[in-house]
Amino acid sequence: MTKSWIVGLLGASLLVYFAGRPFVDSILVRDFDDDLEMVTFRPGDTIRWRSEGRADTLVGPHGLPGWQPNGADFRVVLWGDSQVEGLCVADRDKIHQQLIDQVAWYDSGLPFTCDCMPMGRSGTDARDWRDGMPAADRLWKPELHVWVVTDLEDLTALGTPTMPRSTTWSAPSSRAVRLAHQLRADVLVAIARKRLRDPAGGWRSLDFAIGPRGTAAPTSLDSPNGNTAPARNTAVGGLGLSDQVPAGNTEIDEATVAEVERIAAEQAGRLLLVYAPATPRIHNGWLPNHPDDERFDSIQARLAARGIDVLDLRPDFRALWDQWRLPTRGFHNGTPGLGHLNRAGNSLIARRIVGALRDRVIAENSGPSSPSDRPDN
Questions:
Q1: CB neighbours (10 Å) of residue 78?
Q2: Is it true that the peptide bond before 368 is cis, omega within 30 degrees of 0?
Q3: What pTM did the predictor assign?
Q4: Cα angle, residue 349 at apex, residues 344 and 352 outer, rounded to 5°
Q5: What is the CATH number of the domain that holds 288?
Q6: Measuring CA to CA, how many Å separate 48 from each of 21, 95, 175, 185, 186?
Q7: Continuous segment of H or E residues that includes residue 299
Q8: Interatomic CA distance for residues 57 and 70, integer angstroms
Q9: Beta carbons within 8 Å of 244's beta carbon, 6+ residues apart
Q10: For residue 266, is pLDDT > 50?
Q11: Which of 1, 103, 122, 274 is the most exposed place for a label (fewest CB within 10 A)?
Q12: 3-state DSSP call for residue 180?
């Protein structure tokens, strides 16, 4: 009996270990890229995504997900968070690849082919994008930088220097992570993550303790969990959607606009902003509005007054739902429309960027700018 029990336990464990790997997310290995002067994914790895549907990503040169250089004469660098990273969709459906394909279409009206380098990294914000642009300029000499802002707080971080930065990309992966990847321990890591982490990413607490049970007093007035750092708004779906606007936004927004203006001037007009929030959203039914609408409209007006245009995808996203009942995002905690951008959402973003490129060509009336016009030469 004992022998059968042990054999069954070991056999089931081995079955889960070997057969379960294709059904869980990959262990992510990160390396430092000398050319980009930052931590990226390890080139050559294949990343599995199983949290929202099923997708596999081949990591290309310099750790860029789903990218292979094509030698095109017009280069665009795409900046953003996990939405631009695009691990939840197939490589052909990522924003950068759809942009490349749409430029190549015979009816795009553009007199060039395009290469688009996806520099999206989960958890980053506009401060990280700004800091990474000089190295990208030296490496690729792009004609355009595009910031895809899917959470307004990622942009207003420029005006909030005290906001904590993500530590995910602060250092290459540890030896333990590399060993777990080498041993193909993806299932064990996935089980441990589910058991030890709560849906919000915090550590789970034990449901039992020695001695009388009591409620500990908060260690900080700023946060019930004692975290004194300013927390990101995660009231709806954990994606930065909140119906309450914090005080002091006027100063933060003005500082944000001033910094964007400085960066745009430094780049000699090679900066394009795209706003693509989670809208329409599900919250007691489909809501066409977004909690950040009023704040973004104010920021957009200030940028426009300084000659900086922002591509606003909100009407495009809402029209897709109104006409075809298609959301532009996947599921998040079982709720459709609040997850990561899907193929439809990425396609709309790529289409609007292509339109902006076409407008630039028409305005310049001479094709893309020559290399001698770039500030890095």
A1: 30
A2: no
A3: 0.81
A4: 125
A5: 3.40.50.1110
A6: 9, 18, 21, 14, 10
A7: helix 293-305
A8: 18
A9: 233, 235
A10: yes
A11: 1
A12: helix
* Tokens 């070997």, located at residue: 18
What pLDDT, on the 0 to 100 scale, is given for residue 201? Answer: 62
* Of the candidate ranges 12-16, 271-275, 325-329, 366-370, the one whose mean pLDDT is the lowest: 366-370
Instruction: Give the pair of three-digit tokens for residue 143.
Output: 């004609």
**In sequence order, what DSSP letters do the residues of 89-135 get, joined into one string?**
S-GGGSHHHHHHHHHHSTTS--SS-EEEEE---TT--HHHHHHHHHH
Please tell me whether residue 203 adopts helix, strand or coil conformation. strand
Counting the structural domains of the chain, the total is: 1
- Average pLDDT on 97-122 reads 91
The per-residue pLDDT for range 228-257, each reduced to its tens digit, is 333 444 333 334 444 444 546 899 999 999
List phi, psi (to 5°) of 49: -125, 120
8 domain-assigned = no
Query: In terms of residue numbers, what domain contains 125?
Result: 51-170+237-373
Q: Is residue 208 part of a domain?
A: no
Taking the C-alpha atoms of residue 322 and residue 339, their distance in angstroms, rounded to an integer, is: 19
User: Residue 334: what pLDDT?
Assistant: 66
| Most distant CA pair in the chain, distance | 83
Q: Which helix (H) or strand (E) holds 345?
A: helix 343-364
In angstroms, the CA 176 to CA 242 distance is 37
Q: Which residues have C-beta within 8 Å of that of residue 184, sequence separation ≥ 6?
A: 17, 21
CA dihedral 300, 302, 304, 305 (to 10 degrees): 170
Residue 254, H or E segment:
helix 249-266
Q: Are 263 and 130 in contact (CB under 8 A)?
A: yes
User: What per-residue confidence (pLDDT) applies to 195?
Assistant: 65
Query: What percent of the chain is modeled with pLDDT above 70?
Result: 76
Classify residue 45: in a domain, yes or no. no
The reply to whether 17 falls in a domain is: no
Q: What residues have CB less than 8 Å from 260, skipping those under 6 apart?
A: 155, 158, 271, 273, 303, 308
In this structure, are residues 132 and 79 in contact, taking their beta carbons and an 8 Å threshold? Answer: yes
